[in-house]
Design a protein that fits this description.
five-stranded parallel sheet
């Protein structure tokens, strides 16, 4: 996606303002517009507006004018940009169209990764006539380095370990058992919260479509696929509306099929590709999977 830099540059003298106004801030603003993704710029511009101040403590007119022009450009660009999804339901319907060959096929199961992936998965399941369930995944964070994954635990109590990482960090059995027990309890709690007393749908031998609302690093999807392999799922389909190209390439080695509608080079974040990316609540998830 590109903003109309040409039009903006033509108006640059107007944005500079008179002597004494913050030229450096305006220059930074222009650079911000060139480098950031469209859907993320409004938030950044709103933050930026609060930085330069005149002597009375208010935002300067040059910066205020620049923000106004930016809003106009962004609105025009987003309206005509087919890669921006209206919301998760819209993304799900478009994803379902790309999975249309699975419609009516027996043995297909759709799993949504909570919470954001469930509304998308619901649209897919409805369109192809497949049952829908939720699949909870929790990372097993390393001691003192919780951002580093030793593996993961998923719905059904399935554990996937990265033995090499465990060995390199010298994590002993007692530490590992404690971490697994803690995260397994969280998965069990969330499974119960979303599904109630209903047991998880069986995946063995089935074509399983794993759906998320977008893939930033692909870590959660990869763990889900590994856990489902361990449960002897048949064909595994990784599906999402948007993901970076490198994540798509990585998943192609781990899933039997990868369906991603858009793989932009300048990805930024999942939410940048949605007009409405409000948080999905637990109640919404429950209403969709029961």
């Amino acid at each position: 996606m590109r903003v109309a830099i040409g039009r903006f540059s033509e108006r640059q003298p107007e944005l500079i303002g008179e002597r004494g106004q913050p030229r450096e801030h305006v220059r930074q603003l222009l650079e911000l517009l060139r480098r950031s993704a469209l859907a993320d710029r409004l938030r950044q511009l709103a933050d930026f507006l609060g930085e330069p101040r005149d002597r009375r403590g208010g935002a300067t007119s040059a910066v205020a004018f620049a923000v106004g022009v930016a809003h106009e450009l962004l609105e025009l660009s987003e309206v005509h940009n087919p890669l921006i999804f209206a919301n998760r339901q819209d993304a799900g319907r478009q994803l379902a169209a790309a999975l249309g060959d699975l419609a009516g096929v027996s043995g297909v199961l759709v799993l949504g990764l909570p919470r954001g992936g469930v509304p998308v998965a619901h649209e897919v399941a409805e369109a192809i006539g497949a049952p829908l369930d939720v699949f909870v995944v929790r990372k097993l964070g390393a001691p003192h380095q919780p951002e580093l994954a030793l593996g993961a635990v998923a719905s059904g109590g399935i554990i996937v370990l990265n033995d090499e990482i465990v060995r390199q960090l010298g994590v002993d059995r007692t530490q590992l058992d404690s971490i697994v027990a803690s995260e397994r309890a969280v998965v069990s709690e969330r499974d119960g919260a979303y599904r109630g007393d209903r047991p998880a749908l069986a995946v063995e031998g089935r074509t399983v479509v794993v759906v998320d609302d977008g893939l930033a690093t692909g870590a959660t999807m990869r763990v889900a696929l590994a856990a489902l392999r361990a449960q002897n799922a048949g064909a595994l389909v990784a599906a999402a509306p948007v993901a970076p190209p490198e994540v798509v390439a990585m998943l192609e080695d781990e899933a039997d099929r990868v369906v991603v509608l858009a793989a932009p080079e300048r990805f930024i974040a999942v939410g940048a590709w949605y007009r409405d990316f409000r948080q999905v609540t637990d109640d919404e998830v429950r209403s969709l999977v029961r």
